[in-house]
Amino acid sequence: MKKNKMTFGGIFFNILNYTFYILFTLLCILPFYYLFINTISNNDLSSRGLVTFIPKGIHFGNYIQVLQIPGLLNSACISILRTVIGAGLTIIASAFLGFLFTKKAMWGRKFWYRFLIITMYFNAGIIPWFITMYNLKLTNNFLAYILPSIVSPFFIILVKTFVESIPDALQESAEIDGAGYMRVFTSIIFPLIIPILATIAIFAAVWQWNSFIDTVFLVTDQSLFTLQFLLYKYLNEATSLAALIRNTSGSLGNIDMTNAQTPTSIRMTVSMIVVLPILIVYPYFQKYFVKGIMIGAVKG
């Protein structure tokens, strides 16, 4: 069998294609690289904008000092718990409800499905939302991060569409053998919808990790502050926070004043700490992402 020889046009297209995507990848990486090299460079040079592509005066004191900021580690734990528990419950609810909405025997299936879809287009606004959360005793409560996000219409639609692409014969054969809905779901459907659940896990985890607006409106207890909220707070208070760290470290005699914290170093270091976990976790789920997001593209 002869191999098809590429034409000049095909080779030229591939060169342009690879060049474009390499440049696009570099553009995506560049902001994180710039952020990182400024966190490990001389703080004075960084604050004056003299660090561009190569780190200068490399040191890791910024991370050591920022990690000693009161409440930072506790906020990291809150964010991790919120992300793991919140995303986990969202995945479970989306998987089961998406499966149920494919069953014609479900009572009021069309009504409940349409009722669910309506919530995607209508929002009461912040004030009614706050009043509802207040009446439900979800202010200064960790459950305020979890409960409102468990049922997500968009994720349920994704799972429903994926389940509908699975041959009915697989479910029917199990039902003939006496399997109930829960048995069919746990033994047959759930293992087959792992790709779309991994896609949902990416979206849900990133949303939970990055969210801070609910903390702004619902939480005043510092023990429940999330890492993103502290980032929002520190970006606004970077100048005073840098002075606090300099004074604290200077009084202990363990700081090199040439690398004293500046508002720029505070902003960049805290931003890097907040972004790093998602950068580490995302590539693991990436292999499922393409397969999951292409649901319905090929059928049969």
Helix-strand topology string? HHHHHHHHHHHHHH
Oligomeric form: single chain
What is the makeup of the main sheet?
Answer: none
CATH architecture: Orthogonal Bundle
Query: Could you state the CATH homologous superfamily?
Result: MetI-like
Tally the helices: what do you get?
Answer: 14
CATH class: Mainly Alpha
Number of domains: 1
The residue-averaged pLDDT reads 81
Low-pLDDT segments: 295-300
In the CATH hierarchy, the third-tier topology is known as MetI-like fold
Give the radius of gyration. 25 Å
SSE blueprint and pairings:
Blueprint: H1 8-39, H2 43-47, H3 61-66, H4 72-100, H5 109-118, H6 126-135, H7 153-164, H8 168-176, H9 181-192, H10 194-210, H11 213-218, H12 227-236, H13 238-252, H14 263-293
What does it look like?
The protein has a single domain, classed as Orthogonal Bundle (MetI-like fold). Helix content is 68%, strand content 0%. It is flat and about 70 Å long. The chain is built from 14 helices and no strands.
